[in-house]
Every structure is written in structure tokens, then in C-alpha cells.
UniProtKB/TrEMBL annotation, chains A, B:
Pfam families found in the cross-reference section: HTH_5 (PF01022)
GO molecular function: DNA binding; DNA-binding transcription factor activity
The HTH arsR-type domain, residue ranges: 11-108
InterPro entries, per database record: ArsR-like_HTH, ArsR_HTH, HTH_ArsR_DNA-bd_dom, HTH_MetalResp_TranReg, WH-like_DNA-bd_sf, WH_DNA-bd_sf
SMART domains assigned to the protein according to its UniProt record, in alphabetical order: HTH_ARSR
Keywords attached to this entry: DNA-binding, Transcription, Transcription regulation
Name the record gives this protein: ArsR family transcriptional regulator
Gene3D superfamilies: Winged helix-like DNA-binding domain superfamily/Winged helix DNA-binding domain
């Protein structure tokens, strides 16, 4: 059961490894801002051309950070012509959000958990 | 407003920096398991003596990881006699959980947000 909050029972070693890879990708301010910019962009997707004007970083640096987020399973992408378009993987964010829930916070309904890939 | 999910609007630079420090601390499987073990321990707190038998790691290594979690604001602690006792900071986990919420997930009620230190 991959939606069980970490405050409820100790994480298994395998599960902690999977989660740590995703949290590590979020452990950088530029990557967090990139993820947020993509997620909040009109239509829920963005290309590097949409993003680069918000960051004082080279396009290769931005592309590198986007790749780290993609490899962690937090973003997905598709090439269309010249540009690669990115969008967030909602089930990944839901999984991380659910595992951090404390007893005093509302629980994620079981339908949301069912969407989370094992 | 520190509960706004990152999918709703782009994170500011300052806020992304604060969040990234916490996510970075979670970006290690041992630290995630330690946090979970402390959080799910009877009474909601644990000392290194309770924890060390679950890990094939030296006590100084465990103490180092606990220090990283404490410095990130995810754990708090208190010395009692020989041992230091640790417990999770619920508002920190709630803050991270809330920022990762997607539109399709339930929103954290405003009372929970009010508990989150700015």
C-alpha cells in the first residue's frame, strides 16, 4: 500500500529508496521552481522556450534540471517539432503528498491512491 | 500564503529555497526511514537507543542523519539524561504535503495552514 503516510508505520527499505529518489530531485530550488512553473503554466505544460525567460540560467542548464525531474518520474515530456514540452505527473506528486500526511491532516481518498503506480 | 500548492502558481525564489532544504533532507533513504521510524514510534518520539537496532549503521552515523533532519526543521529533540529524544514537527510535514497537492487531490483545510510557521 503505497499511500500509507510515513508517520503511520516505518517505511520499508525499497519504498524509502523510491521515495528518496523523488525527494532528492525536489531538493534543489531551481528544480522546484521549474516544476512549479511547468505545473502552473497555462494548459499544464510548457516548453523550454516558455521557461527560459523566468530563469537567469542557460538553456542547457534548464534542460539538465528538467531531465533530472523527468528521470525521477515527476515530469513527463514529448518532442513536438523544435521543442520538447513538459508536464507534471500528477500521480507522483499525489504519492509524495500522501506519504507526508500527518494524522491531523485529511487523508487522501482511496481513489487517489488507486491511481498511484506501484 | 505558504500552503499554496506548487501546481497553482510559480514558487517564489525564497520559498523554493526553504522548501528545497527540507526536500533535500528527505532525499536519502536512510533519513526517510529514520523519520518514519521516529514518527511511527509509540508515543510519537524515539531515542537513538530505540532506533539503532533497526539499522545496520553505527550510532554516530544515525546521529548525523538525525541532525540533518533536525537542521531542516523536520525533527525536534530534547536531551533527557543519557539519551536525546526525537519527534517529528507535524507543521513541517503538513507544509510539504500541502505544497505537493495537485488539483485533483483534496485541499488542506485553512486551519492546517494556519499552524504552519511562515
Amino acid at each position: 500500500m503505497r499511500c500509507s503516510p510515513l508517520v503511520r508505520e516505518p517505511l520499508t527499505q525499497d519504498w524509502a529508496g523510491d521515495l528518496a529518489r523523488m525527494f532528492k530531485a525536489l531538493g534543489d530550488p531551481v528544480r522546484l521552481r521549474l516544476l512549479s512553473l511547468v505545473a502552473s503554466h497555462a494548459g499544464g505544460e510548457a516548453c523550454v522556450c516558455d521557461i527560459s525567460e523566468s530563469f537567469d540560467l542557460s538553456q542547457p542548464t534548464i534542460s539538465h534540471h528538467l531531465k533530472v525531474l523527468r528521470e525521477a518520474g515527476l515530469l513527463d515530456c514529448e518532442r513536438r517539432g523544435t521543442w520538447v514540452y513538459y508536464w507534471v505527473v500528477p500521480s507522483a506528486l499525489q504519492q509524495l503528498s500522501a506519504v507526508l500526511l500527518t494524522e491531523s491532516a485529511p487523508t487522501v481518498p482511496s481513489e487517489a491512491c488507486a491511481e498511484v503506480p506501484a
